[in-house]
Structure formats: C-alpha cells, structure tokens
Design goal:
The complex is a heterodimer. Chain A is an alpha/beta fold. Chain A has helices spanning 10-25, 41-54, 70-76, 95-101, 124-133, 151-158, 168-172, 184-192, 199-231, 254-267, 284-299, 312-322, 340-343, 346-353; strands at residues 4-5, 29-34, 59-63, 85-87, 90-92, 105-108, 137-143, 176-179, 234-235, 243-248, 271-277, 303-307, 327-331, 358-362. In chain A, the strands form 4 sheets. Chain A has a 5-stranded parallel sheet, sandwiched between helices. A 5-stranded parallel sheet of chain A has the order 12-11-10-13-14, sandwiched between helices. Chain B is α/β, with parallel strands linked by helices. Chain B has 2 domains: 10-69 and 76-219, Rossmann fold; 242-365, Rossmann fold. Chain B has helices at residues 22-35, 51-55, 80-86, 109-118, 136-143, 153-158, 169-177, 184-192, 197-218, 257-271, 288-302, 315-325, 349-356, and strands at residues 10-15, 40-44, 61-62, 66-70, 73-77, 90-93, 122-128, 161-164, 246-251, 274-281, 306-311, 330-334, 361-365. Classes of the chains: A alpha/beta, B alpha/beta. The interface between A and B is large, with 75 and 72 residues. Strand 14 of chain A pairs antiparallel with strand 13 of chain B, so a sheet runs across the interface.
C-alpha cells in the first residue's frame, strides 16, 4: 500500500494528543442515513440497539418517532425506553433523565426535531451532542431532507420545505455513518400500499434523493478517510474521488479548460481546483488576462490555488500529489523553441513525470 | 406477473468486502418474495459457515449444484441447465463475478445469469465493488491485489436495480473479530492484509460513488435532461453538448493498454460520450505485437467498445487523421513503457501524438495500478 509518514512539528503532535484525549472521552456517534421515509432507518437503528443489548451492552432508547409500524413496536418491546416528556404538546427527549441514568448507548430517532422554547437546547441534535460530551454513545437516524446544507436541493425535488434541520458538519463528525439504501419502489410500496399512476414521478424524485444520499455519504466517508490518515500521520492517495486540477497561465485558453474541468468534476461528483504557478515578471496585459481567468475560476466555484515554486512543473506535480489530484488539465505550449525539439518541452516533462496522474492536454 | 417472453429482471446487491451482509439481505428479499407467492429457488449459495446467513435459506428450494472433476479435484458449480429446466420465477445467485472451472458451458457465472435472464427468470445476485472491470486498476492500487474475476461495466448497467449494502468498516472489523465472517485463523490473516481500516474505507467510498452513478444513469429512463452543466453559474465555455463528445482510445501492444481501455471507458460512461478504440498496424504484420493488439482489441469489444484495426506505418499520424475524420474530441493514450523518451532525436508515441493532435483534447492516462511515486 502506498504510504509514507510525514514528520510533524511538536505543536502538531501536541494538538494531535489533545484531540485524541478529547476524542477518547466523548461518546461515539453512529448515524443511519436514509433518503426517504420508509427505507428502514429507524428499524436498522433499533435492530442494532437490540443486537448490542443482546451482546451485553447497556442500551437505552432515548427517542422514537410517534408513528410506529408493527415491526418497530416489536423491536421496542425488547429494549428499555426512557419516555419522551410532553411539553406544550411537543414531545421532548428527556435529556436529564438520560444523563442521570447514563447508559452506554442511547438510541435517538429523528435527529432534526426542534425542541419547544424553554428546552435545554433548541434542537434534538444538540441534545445528542450533549449526551456525547457526557461520554454516552449515541445511535441515531436522519433523513437527508433534514440536512441543512442539502435543504434547498431537496426541496426543489420534493416541493416541500422543511424548517427543522441538522448541520452537515454534525453528521460529518459522526464516527460512523451508514446509508440505508433501497430501491425507490420499496418506499413507494410502503407509503402508498400499492404502486399507482403517480409512481413514475414519485420514483424519479426518490431516485434523485437516493443519489444525493449516496453522494453525501461518500463525501463524509472521504473526509473520514482523510482524518483517519491524518490521525495516523499517513499521506496516501487512493483516488476514490476524482480530483481535477486545471493549470492556467495568463495565455491559457482558460475558459474552455475550466468549463471542461467543471463539467468533468460534476459528472464524476468530484472536486475542482484551478491552479496558477506565480511567474516572476509578468506584463500588465498578462496580469489582466490572468485576473480574468481567475475570475472565471471563481465563477466555476473552483478552489483557487496560487502556487510558488522555482520550477512550475515540479510545483504542479508536488501539489497534485499532496492533494490526491487524479487529473491534471494543461494547455498546449504556444510555441516550441528549437532546443526543445531535442530536450523536450515543459509539457513533455509534465507528461513524463506525472506517471500516476492523468494529464489532459487542451488545444490552444 | 412476467410474461414468458420478457427478459428477467436483474438485481445486484453491491458491497465492498466479505461480511457486509450482501447475501443476508438478498436472502431476506428472497424470503419476502416467497411470502408474496412468487416461485423462488436458490441457484447458488455460498454458506461460508455463517449461521445467521444459512438460517435465511430455510424454506427456500435449492437447485442442486452440478459436480465435475478438474485436475483430480471435485468442483461444484451452479447448474444452469437444471435451473432453466426448473423454470422458477426468481433465482438467487450468490457471487456474481465467479469464474466457472474450465470445461463448463460458460466461462463466467455472469454469463450463466444472462442465460437465466434471457428466458425470463428474475435474478437476485451479490458482488463486491472490487470486481467491477473499470475499477480494476484503482482497486489494485488501494488493496495491492489484482482482482482476476471481473464484471464488465455494461453488465452492471443492464441490471434493473443496484442496491448498496452498507456497513461501516468498524462494524465490519468487529464482526471479523467476533468470528462472524471467517473462522479465527482466516480472520487473523484477513486483518493483516485486506481488512485494514483505511483500505475498507476507500473501497466503501468507491462502492457508494458507484451506486450513486448507477442510480443516476437509471434516471435517464424517467426523464432525459440533466446532462447539461448547471447553467446558473460557471457557464463559461462553449464545449460541445454531450452527444458530440467522442472518445477514441489508442490501442497498442503495450501491456498498459488494458488499463487505458478501462479508464477511457469509465470516463466515457461518466461523460455520456461515445467511445471507440483503434490500433494501427502495418498491413500483414504477424508477430507477437500483432497478437497482443488483437487481444487488446478483443478486450475492448468485451467491454462493448467498438474496436477497429487501421492499416498504416506511422501510428501517430494515422490515429490523429482517423480521429479528425471521425469528429473525435478526446484522444486517450497510455504512457509507453518501452523505448520511452529516447534522449535525443527520436520522439516517442506520446510526444508525437501530442504534437499532431493540437485540435483535440489528448489524455495521457496514469498508471493506476502502480504505487505512487513520492
């Protein structure tokens, strides 16, 4: 496996030790992520609780949804439950009772619920955060439509606007996130009893939501992999996610290259970086052209990197390797000096040295 | 429900490692189907000594495996003939990427499954992401293992449903430690090699992304738009619309060609581009390199890429002219591993093509199977 260990400064080591200590004290969070109601998130959550209880762990149910199908009731009957407290007609998780009882594992359904005014926390996910801080591990479930950052995209698909949300960063901080996947047909059957004329539109919507859920999970997993590698001081490039780096110069045909980079990044659900290696002396015209190109990059919502280095090719490649870039986009050299016919152009050298990265050369 | 003439439906339970619960979930569904009154049989099931999973086969009919001897050892394979004769509505087939022993009617189990589907039998099957052809090199880089049993991407694309069976690596490692996945000695071995957390995490990410891709390409059936680049921002270029994107893969005798073909095809699938492959050869060449080229062209054809042999002496010139004539927008080639970068004078193929093909994108594909140079 391609690994190498980075040498770290004392400060970095100290930070790591502190982070590890805090991490050790905190409870573990595991989240079941679903794309619609009916995929079986709550079931999976409670079933895991049941299995852990059977293996001797101290499991407690902190909150479940009010609407409970028979298979959920069956699972609940095998678990110990701390009842919700009713306040102003809204059910609230009894955080005090849970903290006092201090189980090893607490099951909390419906992470996005809002608590009524006057509660300990505005939202249930903050209650969960508190349980975690107290060293209680939590298994929870959430539907992607309640993830704050995805809300807009989801409501475009469903036409429904939700007000209660969980921030994505809270879910990214989970130790484990599991996708509860199922074909859309299953959810339709569960919801409507039978597939009807609306089924096709419904299936289309569900399928779009399903894709969002899978990609969200993949992104979280990607971040977790990075954190894991960092924690263990490993730099490692797997390229599970496509990462595209467009290298521009003032004279490059940047608009085409960035548009293509953006399109590729979208098709692969990957990441787009636009990089410029600073050149020592640059004319006013070139500077203006460069600024225009960087503006295009900003519009394309690319990460922008201005790199410094003596040798542009080495600079590009070392950045690319450090950041797990899988494709480098470059423009053709405009002209070739006579000596380059013998020694090769910088482009030749880039291609030769980038042996573990795709190089895409663009027409000028 | 299915009329006798319609093709059976294929459902794939996709995972990223042994022990994530693919077979279990598949059998659960088979049990559900049976309860709903459908005629379900088990065509092939690999128990691996897992009690929980074995218990899920209770009450389901098994079609006995065929037994045959190969080099003195007795092998059991799925008896496709017997299943076809039995004609169930639904057949459960574990381990989709399996290769049959030499002398079987078909080389691969996925080909057996095609035969079942052709006669209208629905099939439920399982596979891990490692076995998808186009990811072969990436998987090799992640795991250090070259997977031999692969499923062509088009076979997965033809499945009616692909469902991700997800389990976190940590839970999987716990299962392994508890002896649920393998017996203790094998578990210890697995932990040392394949079952390292970072490896599992990377494979899981691949599986999630692939499932998302499979979900996305199936949305085409519902409505067609959605392929344009988002117009509200970043609409900065005038790249041709998707239907005009054409990818040409340059096939050579070089061993890296298989990797190049996989990558080119994968990019083409993601970009919804047309994809074809050509090799260039002097007419009448008949040596080792000619047979390597033929092998590579056939490999491309197996992945459903239109592949052709062009006559010509100058490879770079011939391929670039062909590309121009055929409206190719992206030309894919590999780094040549032999005779590379002659110090003076002679340019290698990559340099020549890059210089000639200034009017299209030229993609020089990475060697994904090799360790990263650092």
């Amino acid at each position: 496996m391609p690994t190498s260990t980075k040498r770290r400064t004392p400060e970095e080591l100290l930070q790591q030790v502190q982070a590890e200590e805090a991490y050790e004290k905190r409870g573990r969070l595991k989240v079941f992520l679903g794309y619609a109601s009916g995929v079986g998130k709550s079931f999976r959550m409670l079933d895991e609780g049941r299995r852990r209880a059977e293996r001797g762990q101290d499991v407690l149910v902190g909150a479940v949804q009010p609407h409970r199908p028979p298979e959920i009731e069956a699972l609940l009957s095998k678990l110990r439950v701390i009842p919700l407290r009713g306040a102003d007609g809204t059910a609230v998780m009894d955080v005090d009772a849970i903290l006092k009882r201090h189980p090893g594992v607490c099951l909390v359904d419906g992470l996005a619920y809002d608590n009524p005014p006057g509660s300990r926390n505005p939202s249930r996910w903050q209650d969960v955060d508190q349980l975690l801080d107290a060293g209680i591990s939590v298994i929870s479930s959430v539907n992607i439509q309640y993830i704050d950052e995805l809300r807009e995209r989801v409501s475009k698909i469903t036409g429904k606007v939700v007000t209660q949300t969980v921030p994505a960063r809270f879910l990214s901080s989970a130790d484990e996130i599991v996708v509860v996947d199922a074909p859309p047909e299953m959810c339709i059957r569960t919801q409507d009893g039978e597939i009807d004329a609306r089924a096709n539109t419904q299936a289309q919507k569900l399928s779009e939501l399903r894709e969002i859920a899978l990609l969200f999970a993949a992104d979280v997993v990607d971040q977790q992999l990075e954190q894991y590698l960092q924690r263990n001081g490993i730099t490692q490039t797997f390229g599970a996610q496509e990462r595209i780096m467009v290298c521009i110069t003032p004279r490059a045909n940047a608009a085409t290259m960035i548009a293509s980079g953006r399109r590729n990044a979208e098709r692969f659900h990957g990441d787009l970086t636009v990089a410029y290696v600073r050149q020592p002396e640059i004319s006013a015209d070139d500077q203006a052209a460069l600024d225009r190109n960087l503006a295009i990059a900003r519009d394309a919502k690319a990460h922008i990197e201005i790199l410094d280095g003596e040798d542009p090719i080495d600079t590009i490649l070392s950045f690319a390797r450090d950041h797990g870039i899988t494709q480098v986009f470059v423009g053709h050299s405009t002209h070739e000096h006579w000596w380059e016919r013998v020694t090769g152009t910088p482009l030749d050298r880039l291609i030769r040295n980038a042996n573990d990265i795709d190089v895409r050369v663009f027409p000028h | 429900m299915a009329t006798p003439l319609s093709r059976g439906r294929l459902k794939i339970y996709l995972g990223y490692a042994a022990g994530v619960g693919k077979t279990y979930q598949m059998l659960e569904e088979a049990q559900d189907m049976k309860r709903q009154g459908r005629d379900v049989v088990i065509g092939y099931f690999e128990p691996h000594g897992r009690k929980d999973t074995i218990s899920r086969t209770e009450g389901l009919e098994f079609v006995p495996r065929s037994k045959s001897e190969y080099r003195g050892t007795l092998f059991e394979e799925m008896d496709t003939g017997a299943i076809l004769a039995r004609r169930p509505e639904v057949c459960v087939v574990d381990e989709f990427p399996h290769s049959n022993i030499p002398g079987s009617a078909r080389e691969k189990r996925w080909q057996d499954v095609q035969a079942l589907l052709d006669t209208g039998i629905d099939v439920l099957t399982t596979m891990n992401i490692q076995h998808l052809e186009s990811l072969n090199d990436q998987v090799c880089r992640i795991t250090g293992v070259r997977v031999r049993e692969t499923i062509p991407d088009w076979v997965m694309q033809q499945a009616d449903q692909v469902v991700m069976v997800d389990l976190t690596p940590r839970a999987l490692l716990n299962r392994l430690a508890r002896g649920v996945v393998y017996p203790p000695d094998k578990a210890a071995e697995a932990l040392k090699n394949f079952f390292q957390e970072s490896t599992l995490v990377a494979l899981r990410e691949l599986a999630l992304r692939q499932t998302a891709h499979e979900v996305e390409i199936r949305q085409v059936d519902y409505n067609s738009p959605g392929f344009q680049i988002a117009p509200e921002d970043g609409d900065v270029g005038d790249e041709p619309p998707r239907s005009q994107e054409r990818i040409l893969i340059l096939v050579t005798p070089d061993p890296s060609t298989a990797m190049l073909i996989r990558r080119g095809k994968r990019v083409a699938d993601y970009l919804h581009a047309d994809c074809f492959a050509v090799a260039v050869q002097d007419d009448g060449t008949a040596d080792e390199s000619a047979s390597a080229v033929e092998r590579h062209l056939n490999f491309a054809r197996n992945l459903h890429i239109e592949a052709r042999l062009l006559g010509g002496h100058d490879v770079a010139k011939t391929v670039v002219e062909f590309a121009r004539l055929n409206g190719v927008t992206q030309l894919f080639l590999a780094r040549s591993s032999e005779g590379r970068w002659a110090a003076f004078g002679g340019r290698n193929l990559v340099q020549q093509v890059v210089r000639l093909a200034r009017d299209m994108q030229v993609i020089i594909v990475a060697d994904r199977s090799r360790q990263q140079s650092k």
